Amino acid sequence: MKHRVLFVCLGNICRSPLAEAVFRDIVERRGIADQFEIDSAGTGAWHVGHPPDSRMSATADSHGVSMDAIRGRQFVSEDLDQFDHIFAMDRDNLHDILSMDSSRTAGPNSEQFRVRLFREADPEPGDYQVPDPYYGGDSGFENVYQIVDRTCRALVDSFEDLAK
Ligand code: 4NP
Description:
Blueprint: E1 3-9, H1 15-29, E2 36-42, H2 54-62, H3 79-82, E3 85-88, H4 91-99, H5 111-114, E4 115-117, H6 139-162
Parallel strand pairs: 1-2, 1-3, 3-4
Helix pairs in contact: 1-6
Bound molecules: 4-nitrophenyl phosphate.
């Protein structure tokens, strides 16, 4: 059975598509890509159909990770059923995802546990949020890359530990 993994941010042009691309790159390198279905989405609709932000994809390229195949799409409530693990980049994203979850109550095995802040897996979690680089300078994109890279490695490690 595949792990269905979804990364969610606001615009789906910076943080979550980067997480999608980095996570995919890691599982491909480790030879376990066939165990995963990987996608990303944004809670907002501004960038539906758009390629990733060129500053974010240039940063990814500089680390040998391509975001070329990714296009923006909006998070929909059906995603709550389609994915086993939904990782929100910040607390606003988490709130917006959970607010679309009309049919479920909080508790073990509920959405509260399947839908989590991405940086809960970060060994250096800071405030548990991936900062939005969109309106900042270029250094914000490298910072986001470092956070996303180390958190995705830790996440893939935890999936591999589960399989042992
Ligand atoms: P993202 O960054 O959520 O990491 O994709 C943003 C991109 C675009 C906008 C906001 C955040 N925007 O307002 O257009």
